[in-house]
Amino acid sequence: MSFRNIAIIAHVDHGKTTLVDQLLRQSGTWRENQDVGERVMDSGDIERERGITILAKATSVEWGGVRINIVDTPGHADFGGEVERILGMVDGVCLLVDAAEGSMPQTKFVTQKALALGLRPIVVLNKVDKADAEPDRVLNEVFDLFANLGASDEQLDFPHLYASGRSGWADETLDGPRKDLSALFALVLRHVPEPAQVARRDEPFRMLATTLGHDPFLGRILTGRVESGTLAPGATVKALSRTGERLEQFRVSRILAFRGLGQQPLDLAEAGDIVTLAGMSKATVADTICAAEVDAPLPAQPIDPPTISVTFGINDSPLAGRDGKKVQSRVIRERLLREAESNVAIRVTDTPGGEAFEVAGRGELQMGVLIENMRREGFELSISRPRVLMREEGGATLEPVEEVTIDVDDEFTGAVVEKLTGPRKGELSDMRPSGHGKTRIVALVPSRGLIGYQGEFLTDTRGSGVLNRIFHGWAPHKGPIQGRRQGVLVSIGSGEAVAYALWNLEDRGRMFINPQDPVYEGMIIGEHSRDNDLEVNPLKGKKLTNIRASGTDEAVRLTPPVIMSLEQAIAYIDDDELVEVTPHAIRLRKRFLDPHERKRMARAG
After folding, report:
1. Per residue in 527-568, pLDDT tens?
2. pLDDT digits (tens, 9 = 90+) for 64-96
3. What is the DSSP annotation of 213-229?
4. What number of other Cβ atoms are within 10 A of residue 434's Cβ?
5. Least crowded by CB within 10 Å, which of 139, 248, 255, 426?
6. Percent of the chain scored above 90 by pLDDT?
7. How far from each other are the two terminal CA atoms of the chain, in whole angstroms?
8. Do the Cβ atoms of 325 and 248 come closer than 8 Å?
């Protein structure tokens, strides 16, 4: 059977996973009455809750006697390590663009990777049935995007379709029959070439590992595309590192291939197909699995470097050990190393003392997802403020700069531009009307300036703005950038918060806790209305008396507290503060320092 390998790439929430659902349904992969739910490719709990694709996943369908391997890729740049590896397995890409929003930063990020690999794209203008859809404008934007990214003449001559993934149709013209996705299937078979590897079936077996997984029965498993030769279960192969070092020799215990929503055993893996191998103990992502006579590894796609780092430590607060079962530094270290092994965009290093670990990654969202997964697994952690990683080059200090794309109502444009170009030291590169009373702002902002900005942005735009960011490059260090402007309210006592005390503290600032929440000395319970920290007592009750007077027995009415999400809490804290993360709580606190550390920080100012 002949193959086609294609990846679907798009910005977050442009509908690619929904489109894959329809491709599976219309190809006959599911029974007519089978209940599989929505967005079946988003199998993780966090993926379903947030509506984003985090891990790249593969599936396959049959159409016209041809097997089409489809890879659903992440749309957020924080998970770009997945995208870069996965594009090396395919021979074509289907670029899905929202017909109203147009090309967005993550579209640019992934498309740039695909064009650099020489892949010829198919453009699908999705959601053309929306009231604010402008497919002609968006099509011109996509062409301009390809031209700006240095696409070849062959890549600029791309075919396009108009579609609605939710309704399950795609047509070559805007006024087509709107019946099914047969036009998309036909275009894939016509436009995407058969893998060139098919012609190399007589050569020795070689495969580049692109994703790493774990199966409870098979153990360590690696997925990739067979570059040459064939392989049967039981054969002996070896693993070579990226530099050509021999890692291990092992017997292949099982070969699996993607068929519909699951994987099925194969009797023979052929060149060009995407398969999963089991039996190895050391081989990992970017290693070459090959026959014994092969000496040179396959070239591996380079991965963009991490841009931020966060310190993961044990939870040493007075409330430690009440929620989670996994609290030891040894267990935390094992879990982080296991994550770094399967996710090449993450780097883990030990800190002096061995009680904390520096975890470097792509962005705050990637860190937030890792921490959220760990807390759901029963871990208790203390998390530091994200720190931007600098680079020394030619005697100069360089820092990461991100391209920020913002869609905002016209009335809030001034406030957004002032914040980005003023204290956060961004540079405006484009600002133009985007229709329907909105303005699109594009700016280059240091990564340091964006830490903690999301909350301010939502406040400035009254929740109506949309902000997207992507790593742009390295630029000379822009000097100090002011952090959080407000101080915090710090508890001086331990116990349960009292409603009367919180009511009296409302004049001092916003509260982060509810009455009867457990608090302890050093815990941050609110934001001060001024720029200095203030120690307060949230345990102070009302003095009782046997003399009744008018007005003394009024009910206490509290303003609802600000409840932060995990990412908001991590972005909010300052350098001398930590986020305490447990399976059931997220708390902010001051960093507990020994006397020597206090003196050192005082001398440092």
Report:
1. 998 888 899 999 988 776 666 555 555 567 888 888 888 888
2. 888 888 887 765 555 555 566 678 788 899 988
3. EEETTTEEEEEEEEEES
4. 17
5. 248
6. 21
7. 70
8. no
